[in-house]
Amino acid sequence: MNPIALIEKHYPPGSTTHRILLQHSEQVAEKAVIIANRMPKTAVDTDFVREAALLHDIGILFTAAPLLGCKGTLPYLCHGIKGRELLDAEGLPRHALVCERHIGVGLSAEEIVRQKLPLPVRDMLPLSLEERIVAYADLFFSKNPAKLGFERSVDKVRNSLARHGEDKVVIFDKWHERFGG
């Protein structure tokens, strides 16, 4: 499976969106692979982590995110479920779940209902070690063109998550203890 070829099937090389998506995804993949390589070899599928990290944001093209060159109609929050749909259609169900479950530190069905989020009502929480590694690595990198290429500090990640509740910070801190260092 060639994740770059799959990205290029949906994102024309040379386009703004292709450039932003690829740079962001490569940064996430690099960090995720470093983390995976620190885990016991039998615990994590490093090749899958790399592929999933490269593909985790493939659904952004369906969203209305002009800063990223995305001309879709959906709220940006929907990029995870659209990525899942796209990768399910490609016959990549494990990769598809990473797309759906990588938003922040995950979303519960209860949160989706309580916050009236424009998402299907189901748990979208990273469950496998590989899903958690990709979600964790993603928290450190923005797709915002002004911030592209820069890694956020742990404190900036915590502050960003704190806006969504202290429970999100607690999850991040557990991940950071396991993956961060």
Describe the structure.
The structure is a single chain. This protein has 181 residues and is mostly helical. The chain has one domain (3-179): Hypothetical protein af1432 (Orthogonal Bundle). It has helices at residues 3-10, 16-38, 46-55, 79-89, 93-101, 109-114, 129-138, 154-162, 166-179, and strands spanning 64-65, 70-71. Strand 1 (64-65) and strand 2 form a beta hairpin. The chain is globular, with a radius of gyration of 15 Å. The chain starts with a helix and ends with a helix. The mean pLDDT is 96. Pfam families: HD.
The total count of strands amounts to 2
What best-fitting shape do the alpha-carbon axes yield? globular
Strand order of the largest sheet: 1-2
Tally of discrete structural domains: 1
Task: Spell out the key features of this protein.
Hypothetical protein af1432, 181 residues, two-stranded antiparallel sheet, mainly alpha, single chain
Topology:
Elements: H1 3-10, H2 16-38, H3 46-55, E1 64-65, E2 70-71, H4 79-89, H5 93-101, H6 109-114, H7 129-138, H8 154-162, H9 166-179
Antiparallel strand pairs: 1-2
Helix pairs in contact: 1-3, 2-3, 2-7, 3-5, 3-7, 4-5, 8-9
